[in-house]
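Exam review. A common question shows you a sequence with its structure tokens and asks you to describe the fold in words. Practice with the pair below. Do the first one on your own.
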Amino acid sequence: MSKEDHDHVVKMVIPTKAKLRDKVTPTLIISALVGGFALANLRAQPTDTDTEVVTYCLLVMSVHACTCSALTSAFLLREINHKTEEAARTFDTGRERSGSQ
């Protein structure tokens, strides 16, 4: 394997801050979109049929789940952005925890 091939493989395998952000960002976007659609369909409490009550409960749960997902993604992005490249590399591979075991 040539030096260029080796460097190319290393760049693909070793995580960077940008790669970590690219992993987290889609979760943030999808959860915000799904939560927004669920919130838009949420109306006053239903009283007519059981189907409306079940739909209302599912919409409330999905809004809360999407909010939790978006917050978790935002906290992860904040953590990744405040790390150096080397610390981000260990954050992704989990080697950072090995010292505390």
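Now try the second one, then compare your answer with the model answer below.
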Amino acid sequence: QQLLVDELRVEITDCMEQSRSNGRELLGLIEELQGQVLELRSEHRRSLEEVASRVRAENQANVEDLKAQLRTLRLELGEAKKDTKALNEEMRGTLEENCA
């Protein structure tokens, strides 16, 4: 019976050591996974920053283009107003001549 108890103690000791070894291995795997998660987050953040930078640059270029178009339209509007004023004055003159 003592032999059986001794064998069980040896087996229990082996199981406990294997359990500790498995725990250490599991902790190592967890740390590795945490490192991978941090790396993926960092890559994701960099990708988002790159996309945001591109979008900002494109938006800025679009704003500049729209500003240029607006300046052109304002110039064209000013020319159209001058032309309309000149036509109105010409028509008044013609109307006054015809009425006289």
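Model answer, second protein: The mean pLDDT is 96. Helices lie at 2-99. Full marks require stating both points clearly.
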